[in-house]
Amino acid sequence: MWRRMSSSAPPKTFHVKSFGCQMNAYDGARMSELLEAEGLSAADSADADLVVLNTCHIREKAAEKVYSDIGRLIKREDGSKPMIAVAGCVAQAEGAEIARRAPAVGVVVGPQAYHRLPELVAKAASGATAIDTDMPAEPKFKALPGRRRQGPTAFLTVQEGCDKFCTYCVVPYTRGAEVSRPWAQVMDEARALIEMGAREITLLGQNVNAWVDEGRGLHDLIAAMDRLPGLERIRYTTSHPNDMSEGLIRAHGEVAKLMPFLHLPVQSGSDRTLKAMNRSHATDSYLRVIERVRAARPDIALSGDFIVGFPGETDADFEATLRIVEATRYAQAYSFKYSPRPGTPAATMDDQVPAEVADERLQRLQALINAQQLAFNQATVGRRTSVLLERRGKHPGQLIGKSPWLQSIHLETEAAIGDLVEVDILSAGPNSLGGAEAVKQAA
Ligand code: SAH
Ligand code: SF4
Ligand code: F3S
What we know:
Rossmann fold; pyruvate-formate lyase- activating enzyme; CATH 2.40.50.140; 6-stranded parallel sheet
């Protein structure tokens, strides 16, 4: 604990800003609920008494954002000085180092300790720097207040952490070992979300398909959720190829509410690179999983993650990545330039790829992925499908919703946000599609 200059009044308003993955967004929502339960009210980042920066450590750019944000917060135009709390994966990775580098930071709290945020804020208000990056055995979920969020789509973290130790990745260090939340706790949270208006639930985990409780797997959980009245759609992300069980693959053909979408990262199409990445699967086994999933659900939309410029990646390795993309035919995919992360084995490997080479590969890969995305979207033109309306569009009367394949569909409608409507898809671009309402679905 480090002494800070002065004590301050306890904050009355707060703002949480999330930078990372969907689990990071989920944590951000839970922190907001916790602070609200403590009597604080939400405010803009420009005038909140407490600003929580819920950070991401996955790539260098994401991690650096926290320091530029702190710089902005200490130079507010009106001269006010918010209490700054750094949460999330940078907090876990850098801990006390953050307070040393940025003395304006009052609280540093890791992703497994944020249920203690109110105590930490109180400590910081008394003038101390409060740091908590413990990974307590007693999970935080039991200590958090009930869900307060509203809205048609909801995230629900069911699994956390990772035991896979890919050589480039910080997640096993920032999130800890794989832990599954117990069945009853997850089902209770799902029921609470539905009661508050959720019609779609996305089950989250760093390796969500590794979820397990007393011999039951993710497909059992999905089957139980399928029976919850009021819930219309189930999704899950992110999955590891080695944890795609037979039951989960079959669920894609059998469970009505499970949406035809699968995010299954492969990272590279070169077996040599996959080995250096410690991915513990090969291109062949990945393609076999894809084949089985397609057999279970022929119209499934596939998504993935790719890293280019991993240490030692040759032109031939990269060409192999283009080939696996061609073979898989993605509906969408994310691709990243390899970013060396402190403390990971890959950061000190020989043969780091020059930035210009990685940039050029990234552009070629993204051009291919974009073309596939457009082709996928165009192939759905003419279909009639259900759309869950999520938000307002730019034009009056326009709403934006998602198709079962996670495409953004724009349409003019008198229906309300949260409604599930039948839509004819009329046009397609790379990132969004246009549709017209067919018949309203009975509730
Ligand atoms: N658990 C998931 C992904 C977690 S991180 C999985 O294994 O698939 C999300 C994505 O970020 C990864 O799939 C990977 O493509 C990318 N990523 C992780 N570490 C990275 C790094 N050091 N540099 C570039 N991209 C990285
Ligand atoms: Fe990171 Fe690999 Fe774990 Fe995914 S499986 S979180 S990429 S270590
Ligand atoms: Fe980032 Fe942590 Fe998620 S590093 S991607 S916020 S698990």
